[in-house]
Amino acid sequence: MAVTEPTITLATVALDCLSMAVSGNPNPPLNVCFRVGKQIAHDLGQFTDLCCEGLAYVSLGDTFPTESSFPQQDTASQVQGSCGPATWGQVIRLGIVRCVPVGDQNGEPPTCADWNSAFIQNAYDSASLRRATCCLRSWFLAASDFYLGMSIVIDRQVQVDPNGGCVERYVDVTVQFPNCDC
Question: Which CATH architecture has domain 6-73+86-178?
Answer without folding.
Answer: 2-Layer Sandwich (3.30)
